[in-house]
Amino acid sequence: MTESTPVLRHPMSKYIREDRQPFIYCSGCSIGIVTGMLARAIDNLGIDINKTVIVSGIGCTGRTSGYFKTGTYHTTHGRAIAFAEGVKIANPELEVIVVSGDGDISAIGGNHLIHACRRNIDMTVICINNMNYGMTGGQFGPTTEHERYSQTSPRPYGNLEHPFNLVKLAASSGATFVARWTAVQARRATKSIEKAIEKEGFSFVEIIGACPTAYGRMNRLGDGVTMHKHLLEVAEIQNGLPPHEAELDYATKIICGEFVNIEKPEYTAVLAEMQRKAKGE
Amino acid sequence: MPERVMFTMGDIACAEGALSAGCRYLGGYPITPATEIAEWMSIRMPQVGGAYVQYEDEIAAITSVIGASWTGVKSMTATSGPGVSLMLEAIGLAVMTETPLVIVNIMRGGPSTGQPTRGQQGDIMQAKWGSHGDYQIIALTPASVQEMFDQTVQAFNLSEKYRTPVFVLADETVGHMRERLVIPDEKDLKLEYRKTPTVDPKDYLPFKADDDLVPPMALFGSKYQFYATGLTHDERGYPSDKENVQIELVTRLQNKILHNADKIIDVERIELDDAKIGVIAYGTPSRSAKKAIKDARNEGIKAGLLRLKTVWPFPEKQVAQLASEVDHIIVAEQNLGQVYHMVKAVAAPTPVHLMAKPAGMPQLPHEILTKLRDVNSM
Question: Does A27 touch chain B (CB under 8 A)?
Fold first, then answer.
């Protein structure tokens, strides 16, 4: 065997299972970028990685949790948030982070998303929205734009349905911190993820990503570089905009920024108070 | 806490059993006839520093229970058949990731919405085969308020010992009947706790089993790093599509239950030593059967009862032994015949007669007595 040549280690590799590299993601995919954002956010905050739990559901983004070197769990499809709620309530000292895709979180897991927002349990949900079901080959989902093509909304028909606007959904369901960025706005998005983790309440961060392999190919949006360049061109930063005005139109305008940052009693804090009262303390 | 005596219902005895076992998390969703467990826990959990959390559906409830269990907190859910139907995918996840938890199913009439306020035993096969793929499960069948307590404690012990979901399968009649309950002094309760790893974190293999086929379980927040996934995984916990990894994993998951079946299975043998006819029953019908065999013996019919307190893993040895002792077996269960098929497979060539009743009122003692007379005259 030959000696391997020493190479510079990636500064975030301390958080990543290097023995599982390379990532399964296609070239041009945004998920690796967002994985880097989360690793940097954890690093910048200096939080104890052993006290951090990372949970994912099913799909391409659902593989994210498995690359982190801490307690990680890969749930059934759509149930990452429900799993994370059990973790946080059973041990409120843990920092609980969900990373999953738009299909996982807003289709099959949509009910858990809105109720977790309403309950206001302290956790951070990072939803990578690539506007289709990538893992299964590119079918339309609840975030696919009207008339866009996919494996199940093929040419010449296009998508019969209309998409969710996830930041509106999370905000109206009661999330206490809501932000949206694109995958190319790495520095701003990382900062928002840090704020989301620090927030004592339910935080929702949507990252608009590119799926050149499926969605991009079927809608002739170009390769990964082209799609990411496009995201930067159409991203428009409007921090503090009322969330119901945070429009998302892939072709022309993606409103980005932090839209909600409010205070509300947090579930595990209220529960702890209830437990003290019940014990007569 | 010292010994306490209550006059209470089975559902509440179950809740108290869970608390005595150390359960501190219940993720639930209201459903008849299991709501009393949720209501009781909503009062009691905060008093012991635990949480009753009511979710948006049973899918969230059971998945949250899996999450809570991975923090090291003993966790449960309580529901009925329709709720279990929604939980089945997650039960497979709990099996695959070897997560200790307890599922209480207060069985009502089915299929579908069925008869919510009437008891039945229609979910025996669902408990065993409901989730997809090959796996084994543990299911206990209490027949009294005291057993609702005792077997809920036992369910937690088995779930912790074998790192597996365990069912408490109680028919609605047991769930809602009121009897005397003795809650033992906590010093007298033998409680099991899952094994946790002791190796250096860098040497930890999260799914490498010990000789008992059960791997030590690291917890969230500990110094151990791990990835647990419903995907087929190797000893490192890493996903694999290799054939040998799949075979080794599903075989071990099966064998950790089956190889320990003798330690798990619990049956009660009543008046069987000289019996010519053996009745097999569990839950409420077993109470009728107990009276029926007594009445039959007063008439000179040598009848006895094998009462199953465990239905999964199935007590094959105990049923085979019974089949070798008696001329006839009668299975009385509140369904159209579920345990019956298991008994028939094991008991052959001894004839097995089914007393089926797919409705709320269990077989009454005089009905079982009539059946005993009929079989005795064969």
Answer: no
